[in-house]
Specification:
InterPro entries: Urocanase-like, Urocanase_N, Urocanase_sf
Protein name: Urocanate hydratase-like isoform X2
Number of helices: 5
Order of helices and strands: HHHHEEH
Pfam families: Urocanase_N
Number of domains: 1
Structural class: mainly alpha
Number of strands: 2
Radius of gyration: 16 Å
Strand order of the largest sheet: 1-2
Largest sheet: 2 strands, antiparallel
Organism: Leptonychotes weddellii (Weddell seal)
GO molecular function, one term: urocanate hydratase activity
Helix content: 25-40%
Length: 158
């Protein structure tokens, strides 16, 4: 399976990938200081864990809580793809339509470390312009119209 096919097949959960932490040699987004209450921190964790089955949430919850404390946001560094993020030739994207491949092509270009302002934090430009909120949103485990409508309705996706 090519790297693009693996990326498009969903989050790797069995086994979970190692957490590489923050990459060396690339700029990182400034630490955010959201000033969350304990209840708001719990809400942030619940929102982050919604992408994962219950059997891995126990392992991921402390890791995500630490990211929230250290960086003021849960980026899910563990799920940052090991492959080089860049715009691959459009015919290499495993998509049913050319329009879908074009969207993936654009996202991958925006996350290229040579293009993105803070690539590992998904920030393309301007300090806050993120492609996605975290790495789980990049990977299509929940890419269905039904799931999109649900997440849009509760205000956690655009």
């Amino acid at each position: 399976m090519s790297s693009l096919q693996a990326l498009c097949s969903g989050l790797p959960l069995q086994p979970l990938p190692e957490n590489p932490g923050r990459w060396a040699g690339v700029p990182h987004a400034p630490v955010r200081t959201p000033g969350l209450s304990p209840a708001e921190e719990q809400l942030a964790l619940r929102n982050a864990l919604r992408y994962f089955p219950l059997d891995v949430q126990e392992l991921l919850a402390p890791e995500f809580a630490q990211e929230l404390r250290l960086y003021g946001h849960i980026y899910m560094y563990r799920f940052c793809p090991a492959m080089k993020m860049r715009a691959y030739p459009i015919g290499q994207y495993p998509c049913r339509t050319r329009a879908a491949a074009a969207i993936m092509h654009m996202i991958m270009n925006n996350l290229d470390p040579a293009v993105a302002q803070f690539p590992q934090e998904l920030v393309t430009y301007g300090g806050n312009g993120q492609v996605f909120s975290n790495w789980a949103q990049v990977i299509p485990n929940y890419s269905s119209r039904t799931e999109y409508e649900k997440l849009f309705a509760v205000g956690v996706t655009m």
